[in-house]
Amino acid sequence: LKQFGVETRFVDPADPEVRALAARIRAEGLLEPIVLTADGVILSGHRRAAACRLAGLTEVPVRRVPLRST
């Protein structure tokens, strides 16, 4: 997964809400897929992606849309 644009600056893994999301993902799994462009850039789900990394997931469900980031 590649981060997109300025959104990456605002996802702090130390944020208590991101940590809480990671705990929920560990317990229940990722309920909403991360949305990617055709070339693997995150369009939607930056916080979910950060939480999945914190939760230790190595694979996550994604939905690809037929767009390119460049």
Tell me the layout of helices and strands.
Blueprint: H1 16-28, E1 34-36, E2 42-44, H2 46-55, E3 62-64
Main traits of this protein?
single chain, 70 residues, alpha+beta, 3-stranded mixed β-sheet, 33% helix
Overview of this structure, please?
A three-stranded mixed β-sheet has the order 2-1-3. The two termini are about 15 Å apart. A hairpin with a 5-residue loop joins strand 1 (about 35) and strand 2 (about 40-45). The protein is built from two helices and three strands. The chain is α+β, with helices and mostly antiparallel strands. It has helices spanning about 15-30, 45-55; strands at about 35, 40-45, 60-65. Helices cover about 35% and strands about 15% of the residues. The model has no long low-confidence stretch (mean pLDDT about 90).
Task: Determine the N-to-C terminus distance.
Answer: 15 Å
Gross geometry: globular
Secondary structure: helix percent = 25-40%
Major β-sheet, in short?
A: 3 strands, mixed
What Rg, in angstroms, do the CA atoms define? 12 Å
Mean pLDDT: 88
Spatial order of the strands forming the largest sheet: 2-1-3
Which series of helices and strands comes N to C?
HEEHE
Flag low-confidence runs: none
The proportion of residues in beta strands is 5-15%
Count of helix runs: 2
What structural class do helix, strand and pairing data support?
alpha+beta
What's the total count of β strands?
A: 3
